[in-house]
């Protein structure tokens, strides 16, 4: 690492520490404003010279936000939706909004859908989005 970069990093660190000291210990508002602004200029200038501004301005890579197992996630969300539906049917029976026979038949249908979903999830597990698209 060149000595110039090292000196710029030391200057940035000193300016940051100086800014913290001024903000914490300076009692006079005018003194705090003037010294704080001068140190802020030094912080911005050294940050730009070192490349901190460029690093902070970069957007994160798309791979960070891209989900690898999108189909699996969608199936698990569908599974949870069916489980919620099953729960609310049981709650409706307890509250008297549904008859027990009708609720049991709906619950049986949900149970069958859950079995199918679990089989699909099992087949999808471990496969990335690219593999799922090729498989279709």
What can you tell me about this protein's structure?
The chain is an all-alpha fold and 136 residues long. The protein has two domains: 3-58; 64-135. The chain is 83% helix and 0% strand. The chain is built from seven helices and no strands. Helix 1 runs antiparallel to helix 2 (29-50) and helix 5 packs antiparallel against helix 6.
In short:
The protein is built from 7 helices and no strands.
Summarize the SSE layout with pairings:
Elements: H1 3-25, H2 29-50, H3 52-57, H4 62-65, H5 70-95, H6 100-124, H7 129-135
What features would you highlight for this structure?
7 helices; mainly alpha; 136 residues; single chain
Tally of helical runs: 7
The biggest sheet, with number of strands, parallel, antiparallel or mixed sense and barrel status, is: none
Low-confidence stretches: none
- List the secondary-structure elements in sequence, H or E: HHHHHHH
Number of domains: 2
What is the helical fraction, as a range of percent?
Answer: over 70%
On the 0-100 scale, what is the average pLDDT?
85
